[in-house]
Specification:
The chain is of the alpha/beta class. The chain is built from six helices and ten strands. The chain is globular and about 55 Å long.
Length: about 230
């Protein structure tokens, strides 16, 4: 299976091409950025396909991170994945950003829990906790830092994500400390590709996983009356 993987959910614009027949990622590149994903993504996709010596028609699947993450970034990646899939008659697969962060830790050792924390501002994080075997023990949700700490202090968890350092710095005294802390601005794109290849096929197009409403809302007080 040949998979084009896309991630624009957080602090990078990343693309990879995986060919499972060769059991490895053929090409990958991640450009660290806070803004500008829309301008960077399509040239990056073209560059990776060229380096992999593949046409879009040769792909079997397009995988994209669906969030949580930046509202704008998510829309950029998902729109690109859906557009490429539609134009090429291929399948698009959506993957949680939280699961993508956790994947390399679970693959390395699935006996220890993994806590994924993504910065959500105002002392909140997007959180998911994975237990033995990679099963979910705390479902994805946005949580105050205090609640996130309370549900994360199980075993000796590995902590990753954009808010990993924040969680570790506030770790409760007397609790068993994390066995590893890895602060990352975005998930590793090769793992997005691998998860995309392993995902069960569905007929549903990727949709954003926001976990909370956008911060900007219309102001009723200044709305003009309809005519």
């Amino acid at each position: 299976m040949r998979v084009l993987a896309i991630d624009t959910a957080l602090e990078a614009c990343s693309v990879a091409v995986l060919d499972t027949a060769h059991a490895d990622v053929r090409v990958q590149e991640s450009l660290p950025m806070q803004r500008g994903h829309a301008e960077a993504l399509m040239p990056l996709i073209e560059r990776m396909l060229s380096r992999a010596q593949l046409e879009v028609s040769a792909l079997d699947r397009i995988a994209v991170t669906t969030g949580p993450g930046s509202f704008t970034g998510l829309r950029v990646g998902i729109a690109a994945a859906r557009g490429i899939a539609l134009a090429a008659g291929k399948q698009a697969i959506g993957l949680s950003t939280l699961a993508a962060f956790a994947a390399p830790f679970i693959a390395a050792d699935d006996t220890l829990p993994v806590v994924v924390a993504i910065e959500a501002r105002h002392d909140h994080v997007y959180l998911q906790v994975f237990g033995p075997g990679g099963r979910t023990v705390v479902v994805p949700h946005v949580a105050p830092l205090r609640e996130a700490l309370r549900v994360s202090t199980i075993g000796a968890p590995r902590i990753t994500g954009t808010a990993a350092n924040k969680l570790a710095a506030s770790w409760p005294a007397g609790e068993r400390p994390p066995s590893a802390v890895e602060q990352l601005g975005a998930p590793l794109i090769d793992w997005v590709a691998r998860l995309g290849a392993a995902a069960t096929a569905t007929d549903t197009s990727p949709k954003p996983l926001y976990l909370r409403d956008p911060g900007a809302h219309p102001q009723d007080a200044v709305q003009l009356a309809r005519r």
